[in-house]
What does this fold into?
Amino acid sequence: MSRSDPLQSVSPGKVFLGVLLTWLVPGAGHWTLGRRGKAVLYFSVITFVYVLGLVLGEFRNVNLDHFPIHFFGEIFYGGLTIPVWLLTGGLTLELPGQGGEVVLGFSTLDVGVLYTTVAGLLNVCVMVDVFETAYPRPAPAEES
Amino acid sequence: MPVRWGPFLQHLVLFAILVTCSTVVYYGLRRENVKEIIVSGLCRAGFFVVASLAVFGGVGLLIAQWL
It folds into this structure.
């Protein structure tokens, strides 16, 4: 298996650092392991999903008080969740409705929360993949 | 009750985007070839979007008519 050859001597500390960097920036761990293409791909896709979720939620969806369970998923993209939480945590969810009344939330808020949560959970998979890249098992097609 | 096509199409597109992105990332795990990840991931994502819309949309339509 050729992909494991250049990574035989990866130290556990470097793998741990890669996982930690991935928590901050998706793909950063793969970048440190020399997998630049996958790093760019993961960063692009996961950040796109997260930012699109923020836009859909009008930057009100990273909220520990209103969405504690979703926040647990979002926090796995720590590099964005922590700054966004600190910067937007004070924004209210009570917005003026069309008739002038105050409504809680808006139509795309749930979708935005879903997007940011899925982005965080996808980053968990990427963190595991950093470990798998450093200490590879046989690829799925080769297992059978 | 008439269908509100705007929000319906909006959620349809958002659903397709989320499924596509999730599938590409998940398909890339433990694989190395980026081009293969993107091409095969997009193909799988297209299948998942169509299949899930057929199942959930079709069953949802049946339930809505039944109710």
